[in-house]
Design brief:
Blueprint lengths: L5 E4 L2 H14 L5 H13 L10 E7 L2 E8 L5 E3 L4 H13 L6 E5 H15 L3 E3 L4 E6 L12 E4 L5 H15 L19 E6 L5 E7 L6 E8 L9 H15 L4 E7 L3 H10 L1 E12 L7
Parallel strand pairs: 11-12
Antiparallel strand pairs: 1-2, 2-3, 3-4, 5-13, 6-13, 7-12, 7-13, 8-9, 9-10, 10-11
Helix pairs in contact: 1-2, 3-4
């Protein structure tokens, strides 16, 4: 393939006109570009930084073979690539002066692009410590035994509760984000719906969130139980409720990411019927060693 087989654009509508069908053909595996292009269209490109986003589509023989996107100051996120496709993308980006600070993708693709970027630019790729697993729901299996209590869907009048739980989740996961009434609309948490699990006396003990249905899939995102309340089945119960709601909303695929270094959460999701779709990793590129 030739590097210029990669069509690059800053226009999200142009990108989706070319690659939308390809992305929707494997919605679970393409959860990241589907989710973030939907956010860009809803909020506008300026919501994510001064610089424009970047999108890429690999078209050969009239068919889309791969795609990628990058938000300002964030990692490049490609769909699964072959070695030749990864090298062609690296060559195209380097030739046009683009310098992604990182790459985030399935394990194989992330490693292929990191090596191709090193060859093309001289950058040093450093793997991030945390590796993720992307899980896809098969047959939903509710927890048994089921913890006492009930689920409660949070609405617009519950914004203070939503921000509290999302802030606790962000702190627990080490995410560098400010969550308050002024910043809320600009966070990745704002476009989700949230469900609490409450004990019989109404005490909230666990939360789970989910993105809207996008391209036929729903991502369950934000599952959190305070450390002193774990081990009672609350996270399993609320995740099952949210997963059921995603299916009821029409999702063909329901997916979630989990830290592969956390055996408890991985085992929980597998008991609920989730199966590993792919491993996910990221590499940071050292900017001061980029070739000139």
């Amino acid at each position: 393939m030739r590097p210029d087989d990669w069509h690059l654009t800053e226009d999200v509508d142009d990108f989706l006109a070319r690659a939308g069908g390809f992305l929707r053909s494997r919605p679970g595996l393409h959860v990241m570009p589907l989710t973030w292009t939907a956010r860009l269209r809803a909020r506008g490109a300026a919501a994510f930084g001064v610089e424009p986003p970047l999108f890429g589509v690999l078209e050969q023989a009239g068919e889309v073979r791969a795609a990628c996107y990058r938000l300002p100051s964030r990692a490049l996120v490609p769909t699964p690539l072959t070695p030749e496709q990864a090298d062609g993308l690296a060559a195209r980006l380097a030739a046009l002066g683009h310098s992604p600070p990182a790459v985030s993708a399935d394990d194989g693709t992330a490693a292929l692009f990191a090596e191709a970027w090193r060859r093309r630019t001289g950058a040093t790729p450093t793997p991030r410590f945390t590796r993720l697993g992307l899980y896809r729901l098969g047959a939903l299996t509710p927890p048994d035994p089921h913890p006492a209590g009930r689920s409660r869907l949070l609405g617009e009048h519950d914004l203070d509760d939503v921000m509290y739980w999302c802030g606790e989740f962000a702190r627990a996961t080490g995410e560098d984000v400010s969550i308050d009434a002024d910043s809320w609309a600009g966070t990745r948490y704002a476009d989700k719906t949230y469900t609490l699990w409450e004990t019989p006396d109404g005490t909230p003990v666990s939360v789970a969130g989910m993105n809207p249905v996008i391209g036929g899939q729903v991502q369950v995102d934000v599952v959190y139980t305070p450390s002193h309340l774990r081990g009672h089945g609350y996270a399993g119960a609320v995740t099952a409720e949210v997963s059921r709601a995603a299916l009821a909303a029409g999702a063909r695929e329901v997916v979630l990411f989990t830290d592969l270094g956390n055996p408890t959460s991985n085992a929980l999701y597998q008991r609920l019927g989730y199966r590993l779709l792919t491993n996910w990793s990221a590499y940071d590129f050292t900017r001061d060693q980029l070739a000139t």
